Every structure is written in C-alpha cells, then in structure tokens.
C-alpha cells in the first residue's frame, strides 16, 4: 500500500493518529482544571510507567487541554545533571507570556518577570557547555529580595506563588509540565514538593504535572514524606486489546484501509499493547501489505522489519550506552526473568542476579547504580530490579 499515506507514527513523544485508551486520564485532568479554576483544592498530578507506554504523548495531550482553557503552560524535561532553575524559569516565562496579554496591569506582570529573572540568575551551576553569562531573555531588571536567596526550596516556593498570583488576576491558572521527573536532582525534588505543598494549602491556581518511570513515587517519597498525599498518581500502562485495536483500525479507516481479525490478533500478540510497539508494527504492516485488508500473513511478513527497527532505534540505542559490566548485569536479569516470569520482563531479586553471576552483591553495586542512573533499570521495591523498557529482556536474549 502507499507508504506516503501510512498513518502510523512510531517516535519518541510523537502523538499517534489515534490516542486510544487514555480517555480516563484526560477526563480526570479536565476535572482537575475545572476545580482549580473554581478555587477548589486540588493535588498536582504524576504519571508513571515504563518507556514506550506514551507518558510524554499523554503529558502533551494534557497540556493541550490546559491551553484550550486559556491557561498559561510551560514544559520542562529534567536532566540528572541540571538544576531546575533555568528550565523552570524558561517554562514559567512562556506560561506568563501566554497570560500577560489579558492582564490589566502590565507593571504587575513586569514585577513578576523581575522576580523570574532573579530566580534564574541564581543558578549556581550552568549546564556543561553553557555560558556563565547566560541571560533569560527577560527585558526587565532582576528584582531583589524575592526568589533570589540561593536556596532552591525557598526560591521556588516564592516564584511559583508569584506566578500563580499573576494567573489568578486573569481568572485562569498555570500548569507546569515536568517530563522525566525521576531525573530531577534531589534538592530540586525537595523544593518542587515543598512548592506544591504550599500551593495546595493556599489554593493557588498553579499545578505541576509530572511524568516519569515507575520508581518516581519512591523518589518523591524519599524527598518529602508527605509527597504520597501531595500528588495524584496515575499509572500509565500498556493498552488493553480494545484500545490497541482502535489505535490501529481508526487511522487506517480514515485512509480506506482495513485489518482483518487475524491481523489484529497477530499484532496484539507481537506488541502486548505497548503503544510504541503498536505504532511500529502498524507502520511496518502497512508498508508491506499489498492491498487492503491487511491480513495475518501480512503482519507475519512485516514483523521482522518492525523488530529490526525496534532493535536499532528503541532497544539498541539504549544497549549501546551500557558498559560491558552493565550489559553482563542486564543479561543476567533477562535470563532470570525467563525462569521467574515465564519469559516476561518482570522484577528479579538483586541477590539472585549476584548469585547467577557468581559475585557478591556489593561488587555489583557500581554496575547496578550506573544502570539506574542511565534509566535502563529501576528498583520498584527494596532488593528487586527491573527493566524500564518493555521487552528489553527478550531483546537481550535474542541478541546475546
């Protein structure tokens, strides 16, 4: 079939043509926005899940909902070696610029921008390669005595409170979206939790929407014990059969193409409903099917191409970041998963990994910690370890 008309879109954070299976999360966020708009107390939101389940896509969809309500919005992608000051300053600058044209008092907006500039310029450690003379692009003088103490917790509370006040003047809110939230440095995590706590207590119209790996709740809880009550946690998982079928069938229908039932059976068996895989296999099946309807045989012929694409772009790029010692650790995890989870990539005890490698657990700590830092594995509970990427164990066993 015509590859130019292929509707499927496998890509990092790239919205699929049909955002299937996320109606519940979208509806819940609508309620959050409406409650905040009415001055009702509401918790900030945290999305958690494995790689490839569509957290970033959903985060962007939630941002679109906020924009439709004329909220100010900004987005941050956290990095483990970067303070939140610069990215949060840039995100809030964008959010306030969206709100400012409707504000009746330009001087009040300028006063906030002065606070924002002061906050940004207190960044103690610019990212590697960035100029120390960096300026945040704000054409007002930096304020003094507000959000400029150098203590990120004090400053962030003051900054977000002031941003919320500007939004309240206009009768809207501000939403700050934080992707890869598990990579926020520890001090900044603590500051973000403290700011959300203060905002929720005062009913300020500003919410934080974070997205991260499954261990993100543990990261937040380790920072502030009250974070368990501070956020509403939504676990984003693979699609059920009905949603996965819709993600394939509806975009194809728009192009006058159909999938027969056998093709849908084969596709769900291959993808397990993981949204990234659904798009990758759907794209390959479309490209290699000669005519509509797409059949089970078409899917079987296309499967090697989809697997090769995933092996290079989804799995391989992550595998290449690991050292030989880290790869050895992951292969042991993959082999143990076969025994314990019938081939699925579930969690395995770290003690069992050490036993399988004939090593003391303490000697493997550097490899495990490096894999945790690289986001290749996560520890959902003490003494266990699991892959952050679905089907990664299967990939390692096939390419070992």
UniProtKB/TrEMBL annotation:
What's an example of a GO molecular-function annotation for this chain? heme binding
Give the matching SUPFAM superfamilies.
P-loop containing nucleoside triphosphate hydrolases (SSF52540)
Span of domain Cytochrome c: 168-334
Q: Where is the signal peptide, in residue numbers? A: none
> What Pfam families has UniProt attached to this entry?
AAA_16
User: What is the name attached to this protein's record?
Assistant: ATP-binding protein
Q: Which UniProt keywords apply?
A: ATP-binding, Heme, Iron, Metal-binding, Nucleotide-binding
Region (Disordered) location: 1-21
Per the UniProt record, the source organism is Vallicoccus soli
